[in-house]
TrEMBL record:
Region (Disordered): 1-57
Signal peptide as annotated in the record: none
Transmembrane segments: none
Designated name of the protein: DDE domain-containing protein
Domain DDE: 2-73
Native species: Ktedonobacter robiniae
Residue stretches of biased makeup (Basic and acidic residues): 13-25
Pfam families: DDE_Tnp_IS240
Domain of life from the UniProt record: Bacteria
Alphabetized PANTHER family for the sequence: BLL1675 PROTEIN
Length: 107
């Protein structure tokens, strides 16, 4: 089975490149079926989208290197927790954040 997105040129390419096995190979054209391949480069796309807001890659790197741990602190892997555990974890994390940032000013 071959899974591709809905680009129309895939079917003729399959006929041209695999004529001897064409009748034995199923070709599914569906946007969501190829998630494994599509999601493999999702982190790269996310980084590119984030970097578009910065004037230079160096400035983006400086900001993201500091912001990454903060983001991780407030975005735990939600699927690993029950609702009660997640709620308690987030309360603890906000308490820690408030203790760390209390009285601090940006310099």
């Amino acid at each position: 089975m071959i899974v591709t997105d809905k680009l129309a040129s895939y079917a003729p390419a399959k006929r041209e490149n695999m004529p001897s096995v064409e009748h034995r190979v199923e070709h599914r054209q569906h946007k969501g079926l190829n998630n494994r391949a599509e999601n493999s480069h999702q982190p790269t796309r996310q980084r590119e989208r984030t970097m578009r807001r910065f004037p230079s890659p160096g400035q983006a790197q400086r900001f993201l290197s500091a912001f990454g741990p903060i983001l991780d602190h407030f975005r735990p892997k939600r699927h690993r927790f029950t609702a009660e555990d997640y709620h308690a974890l987030m309360q603890d994390r906000f308490l820690v954040w408030n203790e760390v940032t209390r009285g601090k000013t940006a310099t």
